[in-house]
Write a structure and sequence with these properties.
Blueprint lengths: L2 E6 L3 H13 L3 E7 L3 H11 L3 E3 L2 H5 L6 E4 L6 H10 L3 E4 L7 H14 L3 E3 L8 H11 L5 E11 L17 H17 L5 E8 L7 E9 L5 E7 L1 E12 L2 E5 L11 E5 L2 E5 L6 H13 L9 H20 L3 E2 L1
Parallel strand pairs: 1-2, 1-4, 2-3, 4-5, 5-6, 7-10
Antiparallel strand pairs: 7-11, 8-9, 8-15, 9-10, 11-12, 12-13, 13-14
Keywords: Oxidoreductase
InterPro entries: Gfo/Idh/MocA-like_OxRdtase_N, Gfo/Idh/MocA_domain, GFO_IDH_MocA-like_dom, NAD(P)-bd_dom_sf
GO molecular function: nucleotide binding; oxidoreductase activity
């Protein structure tokens, strides 16, 4: 069974990444795209070989030939359109962050449960098998007892002052945009939720008052922590390291798919490189959602995970704005 996908908006990630992934997936088919401008929708549909173009999101959701929708809208619109899609009986893949607040995320999850549809947060990196391998290595004791996890995800887009990411009221800022990856990865690898957050941030008046750079610490159980930084006004980095008493695991390219999707295990006996795997995790994500919708697989993570992750982002922002440690 293939899921027939509709795309809500012609956002860059939809045009350049997700639509091609749907078209490459064995279990997906891109059949429609909607925009607030019918002209933009038609142009995108013709360029990408998509059959249908709509001048409103409502028209797309009313199409009975669409099984699922991908939502790459600005963060503050995720809740509204995810719920509307669920009410229309469509499965939902919602771009990260799932929502701006944990309360919004919970409403979305409840709508999905009521409608009986699949609703997933678009953390494509979690579909990569290397993360299960890393968890297995940690569980085996090969790198000893965990001490700390460190990570950085930064890029410099500060010159584009009109970017949608630079609107605080729309859920803009580096913590929502890329810090969410680091928070998600720590929760996945460490196998639990943080108990406290302490974050310092650069809030830029030139960029709508959003956090253009943030650094902090998340405290987990057993005195283990994530020490991280994220930013949209700094040189590019995309890395994770898990440090234990007998070794460490290094991911030079932690989140992006491609030729550098390997990891290195450093131990007292030396080091070994696992990979590269050269997997398209966007395609894997689309196939997995079709399998879940068909009852052939269980979700790797569901809306409850997204609720918890959103709550951590909120705590980080409160800590940065109020300059204090926040308990979760």
């Amino acid at each position: 069974m293939k899921l027939r996908w509709g795309i809500l908006s012609g956002a860059s990630i939809a045009i350049h990444t997700m639509i091609p992934a749907i078209q490459q997936a064995e279990r997906g088919e891109a059949v429609a795209i909607a925009s607030r401008s019918i002209e933009r929708a038609v142009e995108a549909a013709e360029r990408l070989g998509i059959e249908k173009a709509y001048g409103s999101y409502e028209e797309l959701l009313a199409d009975p030939d669409i099984d699922a929708v991908y939502i790459p809208l600005p963060n503050h619109l995720h809740k509204e359109w995810a719920i509307k899609a669920a009410e229309a009986g469509k499965h939902v893949l919602c771009e990260k962050p799932f929502a701006v607040t944990a309360a919004d995320a919970r409403e979305m999850a409840e709508a999905a449960q009521t409608a009986g549809i699949v609703m997933a947060e678009a953390f494509m990196y979690r579909h990569h098998p290397r993360y299960e391998q890393i968890k297995a290595i940690i569980a085996s004791g090969e790198i000893g007892d965990l001490r700390v996890m460190t990570g950085s995800f930064t890029f410099n887009n500060a010159a584009d002052t009109g970017n949608v990411r630079y609107n605080a009221e729309w859920g803009g800022g580096s913590l929502y945009d890329i810090g969410c990856y680091l928070i998600s990865a720590a929760r996945l690898i460490l196998g639990g939720e943080p108990v406290a957050a302490s974050v310092h941030a650069l809030f830029s008046k030139e960029h709508g008052g959003v956090d253009m750079m943030a650094s902090g610490i998340l405290e987990f159980a057993d005195d283990v922590s994530l020490v991280f930084d994220c930013g949209m006004w700094a040189a590019y980095r995309n890395r994770l390291e898990i440090l234990g008493t007998k070794g460490r695991i290094e991911l030079p390219n932690a989140f992006g798919p491609g030729e550098e999707d390997y990891f290195i295990v450093h131990t007292e006996d030396g080091q070994r490189k696992e990979g590269p795997f050269n997997l398209n995790t966007y395609v894997m994500q689309i196939n997995r959602i079709a399998q879940i919708a068909a009852g052939e697989a269980q979700p790797l993570f569901g809306p409850e995970d997204a609720i918890a992750g959103t709550a951590v982002i909120e705590a980080c922002l409160i800590s940065a704005r109020e300059k204090r440690r926040v308990l979760l």
